[in-house]
Amino acid sequence: MKVILHDLGPEYHALIESKCNHALVADGRYAPCQGCFGCWTKHPAACFMKDKLQQVCRIIGQADEIEIVTKNLYGEYSTAVKNVLDRSIGTSTPLSTYRGRQMHHTLRYGKHDMWRVVVYGETSEAERETFRYLAERNAINDGFARSEVVFISSLTELEELL
User: Fold this and answer.
1) What average pLDDT score do residues 23-41 get?
2) How do strand 65-71 and strand 2-6 relate by DSSP bridges?
3) What angle do CA 86, 69, 128 make, to 5 degrees?
4) Which domains does the chain have, with CATH numbers?
5) pTM greater than 0.90
């Protein structure tokens, strides 16, 4: 299953939805993570907050491939995209294991294939390096075998990439 998480406006919804099995819109119309860890312990992989991200852990956890389309924010995901990723902590469990000789949380849904980030907006070389490192670390932590970051100068390039 391919999941696309994006912070684009409504004019891109049809394009995004035609290119994936499930689209997650980071539009800020949801509560930020409260840090209660209930999605880890009390009700695994489901958030107690009853909004459109209540099942985000299950959606991302079952994805073979995740594609994140985000505006550059100093070498980091946009605030709206970061909030969605924060709410997906329940894709793992509170237990720990070693992956790649490093300690990580045990995966609730097993391994996945590709963590891909498409970044739009101006980026410096330092920001590009930060994004590459961030995507690589996120992929490892969430059990994805590969990661890739693509930088685009214009959203008109988006249709070719998805």
Assistant:
1) 93
2) parallel
3) 90
4) 2-161 (3.40.50.360)
5) yes
